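Fold it.
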Amino acid sequence: MTDEADEFTFEAELADELEDEAEADAEEAAGTTVESLGLPMPALPVDEALALLAGGELELIGRLWVSSNNALLGVVRGDGVEAAVIHKPVIGERPLSDFPTGTLARREVASFAASQATGWGIVPPTVLRDGPVGEGMLQLWIRTDPEVDPVDLVNASDPRLRRIAVFDAAVNNTDRKAGHLLPVPGGHIYGVDHGVTFSPVPKLRTVLWGWRGEPFADEEAAVLRRLRARLDDDLGAALRELLERIEVRATARRLDGLLASGVFPQPDPRRPALPWPPV
């Protein structure tokens, strides 16, 4: 009995020790930023960034501990240019019950293609390529404005977020959190983490409900029409290389529905409206 009690005490103490170490590691990681590591974050034109991402030499530096998937921090180098990047290899994707296994990286790239078609530049340059641990998405790291809190932007329904709300409705984003919004110096706001998009089932989950039921502005409606037209052309061809055909067809129907209604979508009372956690 004494041995069993001693063993239980030892296991409990070991568990506490491991928990303390994990908390210390998390605190240390939380204080480490790309800036503090001194990694390069150049402002590159999209074409140059895509060429660098696709053809540069990729060096992985570490893992982003806050990511639910195996998101890796790295540097890509080529032609005298280097830039910090985020790499999400397919092998590190966490299986989900409502998305096919091994498809999240391709959805990230598909979201970039859709973003480019809008002309709004919402998603940072993103490519699909091989890396040290296999195929995955590679995305340019974005230098954010430390003076701007994305949560404040959401709470204030900042007008700059309307475009992202329109984009999310178009690609059926199921995970638009405040932490996935990247305000940068100069006022532009990027959106990242688009691995759970383009489901054929309507499941928009977002913190950007501030304009629900409001009519689209003329520019917003024009962008939706452009997306729909390009689905029958180059955008559709690009998406069919990355997604299932049913998902591309569902995107066309979704755009048709948005254009027919002329308003921002409302939450579906039969489904969760917010991602969790929302930040």
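Strands lie at 57-63, 72-78, 81-89, 126-131, 134-140, 181-183, 189-191.
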